[in-house]
Structures are given as structure tokens and as C-alpha cells.
Amino acid sequence: MITINGREFPARDGETVLEVARREGIWIPTLCHHEGLNPYGSCRICVVEVTAGGRPGLTASCTLPVSDGLVVETDSERVRRCRQVLVRLLLAMAPNAPVVRELAEKLGVTDTPFKRLGADKDGCILCGLCVRACEQVGAYAIGFAFRGVRRRVTPPFGKQAAACMGCRACEQVCPTGTVKFTESGDRLFGDTWQAELQVVRCPECGAPVGAQPLFGHVREQLDNTGIAVENLCPICRRKKLAGEMAAVCVQPK
Ligand code: SF4
Ligand code: FES
């Protein structure tokens, strides 16, 4: 059992305080957390205060494992003050990002005394979600470089992201909308990482279905499994499946 805000809750081994709080409907803000990715603890906005049963003080709840007898507060005066400072720093890094502005409003913060810091990518808050997503799909096309205010996310040596497969996972997880891809003709451009990739088109209708290197990667992963990789678009795939089902199900009288 752990205690959150004076109430006891059951917790399973291996869970974090954030997971228990979410399951029990207790609000803890997050920015660098994603259920599909390993926790990293970079934004610290999920901070809670441990008051007993563990090392006392402020700590990130997304990386804090539960332990029997742990007592935490998610909305103490210290927690609120800490989150307000953090969101002021984030406002300096990403003043136009809706996710940051909404969070600032929720935390009662309207402006920031800090100057724009760090990352050269517009609105990047260095949460690292894009880096972890890229690692998890096995591309390793981007990573963190430099320290302190020069820290940023970049392809190796700041050059074109040669290892980018065009899966666009980084774009999907980026909370600030910093990561951008655009399509033009038969090319997919990873604008943020200076990547340029060939687009695969549906052989039936010609709709774009994804980037060439991604198909190659998926084929490689499914090699020897007997699973075929089709490059039909979702609509043509459904039509094909419907045709196959009809052929099996509709028996001639
Ligand atoms: S580009 Fe987006 S996902 Fe990547 S570190 Fe910056 S804010 Fe996070
Ligand atoms: S959500 Fe926990 S440190 Fe970012």
C-alpha cells in the first residue's frame, strides 16, 4: 500500500507513483512521460513530495517506484511552487506551445521572468520523447548533443539524419509540435532532422503509404516469420480483404 494525499491505495511491484496516481484519478502533470516509452525523468513537472517511507523531499513521480509504506503529497505548497518555477522555465523555452501554455494556466502562471534558453529548435523543451521513440523503433537517427544551455536534439554531428526511416514516431510523440515532416511529390522531408526519403505509393490507387526505408525495416524484422508486408493503402487493403471474405463466404446456390 502507498499513501497519496492522505489516502491509502494498493500498488503493484514495479509500478511508479505516477501510474498509481493515474489509476486512482489523481492529477499529476507530465510532459516527458509516454506510456509506450521508458520513463526518463527529464521535465520534472510530475514532481511530488515524499514525506515518509522513502527519501524525503521533492522527486519525479514518473521514475519513483512504489514501495510499501511510501507516503507522498501531489499538491503540497512545495510541489506547487516547484511546478510553477519549472513551468516558467518551460514558457521561456516554448512560449507558443499550447501544451506549455495550458499547463501554465492550470498552475496559475501567466508569464516568465526567464529569457529564452537552450534548444535551437523552435519550441523544443528537451523532453527527449522523440529520442526515446527513435531508439525504440530501432533507428537511432537522433540524440542529445551538448550540455547546459547549448543542449539540443539533433542527428549525429548536426548533419542530415541518414538513419531516419521516416516512421514519424518522433513527430507523433513530440508534445510541442516541434518535430515536423512534410510530403512533396514522391519525397518525404523530415524538416527538423534534415531527412529526405522516398515515398512508397499504393500499387492500386497511388496514395502515399509511407517511407521506403520504413518498409525495408519492417520487411527485415518480419523476415522468416512468413508474414507478408503489403504496400496497399488502408482503403485498398480493406477492399482486398472484403473481396477475399466474399469469395469464401458467398456460396453459389
Ligand atoms: S523535439 Fe519535441 S519530442 Fe523532441 S525533445 Fe524537443 S519537445 Fe521533446
Ligand atoms: S513526466 Fe516525469 S519527469 Fe517529465
From TrEMBL:
Example of a GO MF term: metal ion binding
Pfam families recorded: Fer2_4, Fer4_21
Record key words, sorted: 4Fe-4S, Iron, Iron-sulfur, Metal-binding
PANTHER family per the UniProt record, alphabetical: HYDROGENASE SUBUNIT (PTHR24960:SF84), PHOTOSYSTEM I IRON-SULFUR CENTER-RELATED (PTHR24960)
Functional note: Ferredoxins are iron-sulfur proteins that transfer electrons in a wide variety of metabolic reactions.
KW Amino-acid biosynthesis (keyword) present: no
Stretches assigned to the 2Fe-2S ferredoxin-type domain: 1-78
Bilayer-spanning residue ranges: none
Name recorded for this polypeptide: Ferredoxin
Domain 4Fe-4S ferredoxin-type residues, every copy: 115-145, 155-184
